[in-house]
Amino acid sequence: MTSSAERGGRARRGSAARRLGAARLVRRGALLLAGALVVTGAWLGVRVVLVHQELTALLAVADRAREIVRPSAEPLDLERVLAEADAVSRHAASIVSLTDDPVWRTAEALPLAGSTLHATRLGVQALGEAVDGARPLLSVTAEVAASLRLDGEHIDARALSRVGEPLLSARAALIRAHAAVAAIDRDSVIPRVARPLDRLEAELAAVLPVFSSLAPAAQIAGAMLGADEPRLILVMLQNNAELRMGGGITGTFFAVRAREGRLELVGHADSSAFPTPDGPVAAVPDALVIGSPSKVGRFVPNITMTPDFPLSASLASAWWRLHSGLTPDAVVSIDPSVLATVLEVVGPLDVDGVRVDAVNLVDTLLRAPYLTLSHDDQTGFFRDVSEAVIEAALDSATELPRLAAALGPLAERGRISVWSAHPEEQAVIARTPAAGMLARLSRAGDEGYALLFDNLTGSKLDAYLDARLALEAGACRPDGRAQLVLTASLSSGVPQSVEIPWRAAPGFGGFAREDVALRVTALAPAGAVPEGAWIDGEPVRMMRDELDGRPAGVLPVVVRPGQRVELELRFTAPPGAGDDPVLLHTPLVADADVATSGTRCG
Q1: Three-class DSSP category at 469
Q2: For 28-63, how does the pLDDT look when each residue is reduced to its tens digit (9 = 90+)?
Q3: Which helix (H) or strand (E) holds 583?
Q4: Is 477 helix (H, G, I), strand (E, B) or coil?
Q5: pLDDT tens, residue by residue, 52-91
Q6: Are residues 252 and 328 in the same domain?
Q7: 337 contacts: CB under 8 Å, gap ≥ 6
Q8: Domain with 525 in it
Q9: Any residues with CB less than 8 A from the CB of 153 and at least 6 apart, and which?
Q10: In terms of domains, do 406 and 504 share one?
Q11: 219 and 248 share one domain
């Protein structure tokens, strides 16, 4: 018979054994878990290293590809471009496969490292989408480029239409990829990963303007290049050494005949070749100009004294018809920055004994001639340089892909504008940056503002203008609307040690000949309210006007040589607007620095 003491002892020994067994089980489990964590950590570590290696290799390939396609006088080697694109695609696919599995996703929940792993996966997925979207376009482009090389002067106009669909698909993929990368929270991401993400976002943002311009252009390029019938294209040169709202004075024109992809320069004229009629050569609506419509419609140099490019194009077309009896099918406006970009691709040219290249073009074309040449010689030299560059571009059909890529972003900056007399083509153009200033402003909706400049003196001194422009949020008003402040910091680099000839600076309007005098027009979206203007901190009188239903603030600004003038204009934003403002401006000789910031009110 067992005593109660013995039974208690056995119970205690059994309980201790069970506790010991449980402890062993816990230790084994802990060891297994620790082992699993070590293995998982090692696995993740290896994956992270492999991802970094693949990403480093991908960036190196991307740098090589960029070097191949950058503007250059060397022929574009599309076979190398395709080879590098294949390499980028392989590296991108490898990175996606390394990060797209359940273990990686589970590890994203870990403290500290999880946010970096999450950001890495989202970034490489966006990269993969961008690469996959662009790869078919490169293949089609190579096929089209091969057809161009059959004849150095002939463009297969019908073949260009095959690029349209891949361009649209690539653009859509790039937009999605850019949005995905921009949305990645990088606050807790280690710098080694955050920096490549920043670079990826910047690279995608840089190429999007090219696709925004080229995707619609491919839809209509064949017809505009004479695939179905001959076309007459009027090329209009804007000289922004003397500013107009839309760019610069228009005094040089070239007519290009397009027939089945062959482009031929068939005529040119300077402003002096056109008569001065008693009235406007075409209807000029009051709503599309500031000031006198007659001034815009009666004088060739004032064609772009409106931000509405279709109006400018209709005036240019009417002037050319008056001059030649021929009506253009399309009008293309360019400025000297476009000529410089073309020279980056085709190489330097010798014009009238002067070597002109992408670096010296501005000084050679827009500054030096006005100090040394007569009026007629200035005009002739401007025409000769422009003609030589345009001829070189027309003779470089094999470089069309590189030219298109280099010129595409210039439409976003207002340096290239296009209009077609054929309604179905114009409907496509109207959806692109090439439609002109007012069309680009309309795309910005309630967030769109513009600073526009018109020369008041008849001088060519705007070539020395430097501008820093900004559109920034002010205070939120009691009514819940935002106040927005437009600022323009303007300086003049007109040389003080050089006597400026009268022909370069006549000083019309009572201004000193050496001064840069501008009419500044600030356009705001419908529903905005102009509040006032200040120059160097002092309030000044601002004329209130309207253009295309948009409120405008207008005032003159004078900048003396070596001086910097600070201009400020304030607007009350439309209700519910002001958190993402957009600022456009007249294209200047030198690109202006532009900064924007918004605020959410109400």
Answers
A1: strand
A2: 433 333 343 344 445 556 666 777 677 777 777 677
A3: strand 582-585
A4: coil
A5: 677 777 777 677 766 666 655 466 666 777 777 778 778 7
A6: yes
A7: 410, 413, 415, 587, 589, 591
A8: 444-596
A9: 262, 263, 394, 395, 397
A10: no
A11: no
Q: Do 194 and 82 share a structural domain?
A: yes
Q: What's the rounded Cα separation, in Å, for the pair 143 and 150?
A: 12
d(CA 193, CA 570): 41
Cα-based torsion angle of the residue sequence 78, 84, 85, 91 in order, rounded to the nearest 10 degrees: 170
Bridge partners of 270, per DSSP, are 252
- Sheet of 516-523: strand order equals 543-547, 550-559, 516-523, 448-455, 582-585
Strand boundaries in 62-170, DSSP class E? none
C-alpha torsion 396→379→302→531, nearest 10: 90
The packing angle between helices 4-69 and 191-224, to 10°, is 40
Q: What are phi and psi of 565, to 5 degrees?
A: -110, 135
* CA atoms of 373 and 115, how far apart (whole Å): 64
Please identify, among 429, 452, 471, the residue that sits at the C-terminal boundary of a domain: 429
Whether 202 and 143 map to the same domain: the answer is yes
Residue 2 in any domain: the answer is no
What's the confidence (pLDDT) of residue 6? 55
Query: 145 and 78 in contact (C-beta within 8 Å)?
Result: yes
513 in Cβ contact with 599 (< 8 Å): no
From 589, 463, 569, select the one nearest 516 (Cα to Cα): 463
Q: Any idea which residue has 């070597």 for tokens?
A: 355
Residues 512 and 492 sit within 8 Å (Cβ to Cβ): no
**Could you give the CA distance from residue 438 to residue 424 in angstroms, rounded to a whole number?**
20
Burial of 595 (0-12, 13-18, 19+ CB in 10 A): exposed
pLDDT at 317: 98
Give the CATH number for residue 540.
2.60.40
Q: Tell whether 263 and 201 lie within a shared domain.
A: no
Structural element, H or E, at residue 243: strand 231-244
Q: Which two tokens stand for residue 224?
A: 């505009």
Of 224, 250, 284, the residue at which a domain comes to its end is 224
Beta-ladder partners of 518: 455, 557
Residue 211 and residue 277 in one domain = no
Read off φ and ψ for residue 523, nearest 5 degrees: -100, 140
Q: Report if residue 111 sits inside a domain.
A: yes
**Among residues of the chain, what percentage have pLDDT more than 70?**
86
Number of structural domains found in the chain: 3
CA 581/CA 432 separation, integer angstroms: 19
3-class DSSP assignment, residue 235: strand
Give bridge partners of residue 593 from the DSSP assignment: 468
Residues 39 and 89 in one domain: yes
Residue 93 lies in a domain: yes
* Residue 245: closest CA among 532, 564, 550: 550
DSSP string, 294-332: HHHHH-GGGTTSSS-HHHHHHHHHHHHHHHHS---SEEE
CATH number reported for the structural domain that contains residue 336 in this entry: 3.40.630
CA distances from 342 to 120, 256, 322, 529, 588 (A): 39, 17, 30, 42, 18
Answer whether residue 259 is part of any domain. Answer: yes
Are the C-beta atoms of residues 284 and 297 closer than 8 Å to each other?
A: yes
Prediction pTM value? 0.82
